[in-house]
Write a structure and sequence with these properties.
Blueprint (H helix, E strand, L loop, with lengths): L14 H20 L5 H37 L3 H84 L1
Length: 164
């Protein structure tokens, strides 16, 4: 028994091996092209076949899914204990959803009330600042008017005193 070692020096395969590989490749490509319809009649026949087979296959899948679902429900609810267990599970899930919703509502209400308080405080602060500013301006204008009134009174008295 002779052993050959492939040292990576470019050992070539025998010609017979190359030929059989090439033959296999052409045979494989020939089989893939032979499934394609060649004539218009064959193409029409394939389209008609597909038009019938697609809905049939879809309806069979639906039937299988329905049978599977019914069997699953039948085993799940086969006894009273199983039914009660599932009902309790649904009840817990409903209670969890309700509690989550109530928490979310409370959180939203709290956030809304907080924002409302902040806005009210901001508006009250602004109104108070504007009121103080207005009162300050009124006092200033009043003082100016009193001063001008006194000046006018003294001028009028001087005019009246010098005219007499």
């Amino acid at each position: 028994m002779a052993t050959t070692s492939n040292t990576g020096t470019g050992a070539r395969k025998p010609a017979g091996t190359r030929k059989s590989t090439a033959t296999r490749k052409t045979a494989a490509s020939a089989t893939t092209t032979s499934t394609q319809p060649k004539t218009a009649v064959e193409q029409a026949q394939e389209l008609a076949e597909r038009a019938v087979l697609v809905p049939v296959g879809a309806s069979l899948l639906v039937r299988d899914n329905l049978v599977s679902t019914v069997k699953g429900l039948a085993t799940k609810y086969s006894t009273r204990a199983n039914l009660e267990r599932e009902l309790k599970r649904y009840e817990r899930r409903g209670a969890t959803a309700r509690n989550r919703f109530e928490r979310q509502v409370r959180k939203s209400r709290t956030r809304f009330e907080r924002e409302l308080r902040q806005r009210r405080t901001r508006v009250e602060r602004t109104v108070n600042q504007n009121r103080r500013r207005f009162e300050r301006e009124v006092r200033s204008v009043r003082k100016d008017l009193e001063k001008q009134s006194e000046q006018l009174t003294t001028r009028v008295e001087k005019l009246l005193g010098s005219a007499s």
